[in-house]
Write a structure and sequence with these properties.
This protein has 392 residues and is mainly β. It is 11% helix and 40% strand. It has 2 domains: 39-171, hypothetical protein (bacova_03559) (Immunoglobulin-like), CATH 2.60.40.1740; 175-391, Jelly Rolls (Sandwich). The protein has helices at residues 2-31, 88-95, 335-338; strands spanning 39-41, 47-52, 61-65, 67-69, 77-83, 101-102, 108-111, 114-117, 127-131, 143-153, 163-170, 174-179, 185-187, 200-209, 217-222, 226-232, 235-243, 248-254, 261-268, 271-276, 279-285, 308-309, 321-329, 354-358, 367-368, 378-380, 385-391. Strands 12, 14, 19, 20, 21, 23, 24 and 27 form an 8-stranded antiparallel sheet that branches. Strands 2, 5, 6, 8, 10 and 11 form a 6-stranded mixed sheet that branches. Strand 19 (261-268) and strand 20 form a beta hairpin. The longest helix has 30 residues, at 2-31.
């Protein structure tokens, strides 16, 4: 019996040693690298679509490009990135797009175009490709600018990864919106005089309700001061109300789920007009001739009575839906202003009287950029859900 256990022990040990030896041999084989080291552009895709929105002058986008090798470089490698409109025909054949045209050379600038991979390294410093004056493009035309890796010395290249095709197409005015259900957003503009003692102002928002069912849903404003909210005690849960010293609402301000609505509330020394999708739906007086949006109210330290988007007083008063194009003006917009071309979907950030402008198109994170010169970004409690849209 003793000999049997000894034999089993040695057989087990021998098997383990053979296993280790086999693994070592396999590792040695892997380390031999049965392929040649080659240079390639560090990108996961060979083409990128860039949507260009109509806007003011000087529209540009930038992209960083690097090159790399699978293994450490045995020696110094050099090369350069170039704009390569001569490769447009290759793009047309690969993508079956006979109507694409080359982007003008003058609209493509490459900084740090000469690249180097030092011996012992696996990647280069980035070159920056900047496309300028994109507002000049015809929105109905597809433009392509190939950027190619050329003049490489010190190594062979991986031919399938030596060019990136940048494809420019006209975008909708709005391509991304935020869903702020069970969320809220806060701008820290307390005590900024631009937002206080306002006798004339306008609030705007583009919304798509997804659900009602709660007594109050908040769009924006300050509880107990001036608030755009949907629902209330005695008010249907899908009906907009302007809450102030004297609340204003009517049945013409009711919404349906799944539909987009542009809301504009114009204030003039206590008188308000409410426009829904450009049509005047309410005219009345809210009982206060001056409104301060950049101040605390009722001295509450928990933040429940300061300016919020998607919140007022308690967490169950959020807005369940998508939101975009939230704006505050220090002037009273007219019906003609509200119905200006594309006004529902975009305005010039430099527009006179525009003191905050949150497009809610950031696509990531919990910071909502203020496009106005004042720069009061919104901070959400958590990341919104970013939804792709095409508006109008």
């Amino acid at each position: 019996m003793k000999h049997m256990f000894k034999n089993i022990f040695w057989l087990t040990l021998s098997a383990a040693m053979l296993s280790v030896s086999a693994c070592t041999s396999e590792k040695e084989k892997m380390d031999e690298h049965h392929f040649d080291n080659k240079l390639f552009i560090n990108t996961s895709v060979s083409s990128e679509e860039i949507l260009v929105k109509p806007s003011g002058s000087g529209v540009q986008v930038s992209r960083d490009l690097t090159v790399g090798t699978a293994l450490k470089a045995a020696n110094k490698i050099t090369g350069r990135f170039v704009a390569a409109p001569d490769m447009l025909e290759t793009y047309k054949l690969c993508c079956y797009d006979e109507n694409a045209v080359a982007l003008a050379d003058t609209m493509c600038v490459i900084d740090n175009a000469d690249i180097t991979v030092e011996a012992g390294a696996t990647s280069s410093a980035p070159a920056t490709v900047t496309f300028t004056d994109l507002e000049k493009l015809d929105r109905e035309t597809v433009y392509v600018m190939p950027v190619a890796l050329r003049d490489v010395e010190g190594i062979d290249v991986l031919k399938s990864k030596t060019v990136v095709y940048y494809v420019f197409k006209g975008a909708a005015l709005i391509n991304v919106v935020a869903n702020i259900a069970e969320n809220r957003a806060y701008p820290d503009f307390n005590n900024d005089s631009k937002f206080n003692n306002l006798t004339n102002f306008t609030m705007e928002a583009l919304i798509r309700p997804q659900a009602f069912g709660r007594q109050i849903s908040t769009i924006m404003g300050i509880e107990g001061n001036f608030l755009l909210r949907i629902g209330d005690a005695g008010v249907p849960d899908n009906q907009l109300q302007i809450a102030c010293s004297r609340n204003q609402t009517n049945s013409d301000l009711q919404f349906e789920t799944g539909k987009w609505y542009h809301i504009a509330v114009a204030f003039d020394n206590g008188n308000v007009k409410v426009y829904i999708n450009g049509s005047e739906k309410l005219s009345g007086n809210v009982g206060s001739t001056r409104i301060s949006l950049g101040a605390k109210h009722h001295n509450e330290d928990d933040g429940s009575r300061v300016f919020w988007v998607g919140y007022s007083y308690s967490n169950d008063r959020y807005f369940d839906g998508d939101i975009a194009e939230v704006r505050i003006w220090d002037k009273t917009l007219t019906k003609d202003d509200v119905n200006a071309p594309n006004h529902f979907y975009s305005v010039d950030p430099a527009s006179e009287g525009l003191i905050s402008y949150w497009k809610f198109d950031d696509e990531a994170g919990n910071i909502i950029k203020d496009y106005s010169p004042n720069g009061y970004d919104l901070t959400c409690d958590k990341n919104p859900k970013w939804n792709k849209v095409s508006l109008p």
